[in-house]
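Objective 1b of the project was to move from sequence-level analysis to a structural picture of ligand recognition. The entry below was assembled by the postdoctoral researcher (A.K.) and checked by the PI before modelling. It contains the amino acid sequence of the target and the SMILES of the bound compound, flavin-adenine dinucleotide.
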Amino acid sequence: MPHTVYVIGAGPAGLAAAAALKSKGVDATVLEKSEHVGNAWRHHYDRLHLHTTRGLSQLPGLPIPREFGRWVARDDVVRYLEAYAAHHDLRIEHGVEVSRLDRADGAWTVTTAEGKRAADAVVVATGYNHTPHVPDWPGQDSFPGQVVHASRYRNPAPYVGQNVLVVGAGNTGAEIAQDLAENGAASVHIAIRTAPHIVPRNQGPWAAQYTGLLVRHLPTALVDALSVPVRKASFPDLSHLGLPIPEVGLATRVAQGAIPVQDIGLVAAVQAGTVRVVVPIERFDGGEVVLSDGARLTPDVVLAATGYRRALEPVVGHLGVLGDQGKPIVTNGRPAAPGLYFTGFTNPISGMFREMAADARRIARNVVGGR
Ligand SMILES: Cc1cc2nc3c(=O)[nH]c(=O)nc-3n(C[C@H](O)[C@H](O)[C@H](O)COP(=O)(O)OP(=O)(O)OC[C@H]3O[C@@H](n4cnc5c(N)ncnc54)[C@H](O)[C@@H]3O)c2cc1C
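Corresponding predicted holo structure:
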């Protein structure tokens, strides 16, 4: 049994891993750079709710309270994570940022600004959405308006009366565009490079997440084929509005890292014309944004819902454990190197909270087994 185990990050993935370890008798220390648990959730936009169900989002050893409802609100996610850390009596050191991991003589060295610590095992849970990414569009410096990453968006109040161009149609871009359109923006466009797959978040009691779980282990080609009639039954043809059924199938896109948009109102907004879909930005030209079809828009604000980087390179890049797009090669609770684990770096159709809970249990088993 390893004596010293560090978990890096006190988001849901790190807390789940620490709790699962504790249930196996390993009292890990969580190192968290911020002053809070669930730091990322404290900064998400106000209207955000989990799009995965309460029951399928709970972490090991503590259900999410029933009174939080089926689709748990952002503030309640934070409350749950605080209660989770307290319930499991997790040892968390705040204000400690890990800058590098090294392995020598069968042990890990965890480097922080305050010094080095030795560890038998380390769980990296620093987040899939670690560092906001804004593309470097040509001419951007000439733009007099604001370019704001979606991670800084809280609510529509600052954008009332403004022309806003949202870039990117993942779940975040889709919901922010809807939020702006419903709450007083003068105009809302959404620039889309690759048409997203769109599924209703739920149809009555049936959540999209349930379908995701059912089809998860089916062959990719079969799910790709099945998703087309499901889309046609769920939504009218939206091709003329810029949202065609994507050529690349749903499961193939998920395997590439793009989960479908869980619709809670974007489709209606696009149909109503309150959100207008446009092609991607090619460049900025002073106050104008030139799109890839040559059209020009004059937004006051460009809201970049353009994703995040993992930013794992400085910490573990030298260990040969990172692959495509800086993501860990080995996940799912298996050791990436002896005593080194990553959790929270896969984005399956079945939901990340659920995946992090499963990872946590596997990591705990492997750590106890000395792997
Ligand atoms: C807008 C949005 C909505 C989402 N909705 C859902 C949903 O409905 N259902 C679902 O299953 N998933 C959802 N997700 C995906 C995922 O569940 C969340 O992003 C979740 O917070 C990921 O948890 P995590 O612990 O892996 O990472 P994070 O929550 O990002 O936590 C990482 C923690 O590590 C800390 N940290 C980072 N680097 C260091 C370091 N070097 N040293 C020390 N500490 C460090 C950070 O401060 C942070 O507290 C959503 C994601 C986003 C962005």
